[in-house]
Amino acid sequence: MIDIGSKATVKRFARARGEIQLKPRTVELIRQGKVDKGDVITVARVAGTNAVKGTSALIPMCHPIPIDYVGLDFEPKKDSVQCVCQVQARHRTGVEMEALVGTATALLTIWDMVKYLEKDRAGQYPDTKITNIQVTEKTKNGIQRA
Considering only the top CATH level, what class is 23-145? Predict the structure, then answer.
């Protein structure tokens, strides 16, 4: 890890997004709350939140950060579900890795919960993919970073 000891502790914010492509019928079952494993969005929100808090255990050179806020929002579309993860902390380093890990974990959780609906006859997932995971906003002391 790099030495961040001389950096000032300031308010940090990051937002990441991503999307999971699914069969339209799967998205409809998620909306209706009729997935066998339970409430997909609620479980994905909890998984994403836990992932944000455990990012430094997953990414070897990532500093452990005391998180002030995690928010995960989901938008079911016709054949996908979009996830947006927002993370805020007061620390010496940014929280973009935490937002990315929260997004990815939430989307992976959705896949796990609906995989029985997504398999084709050969047991493959031709319609299922996680795409477009990216940091969409990063701020330090309220100043937006590109």
Answer: alpha beta
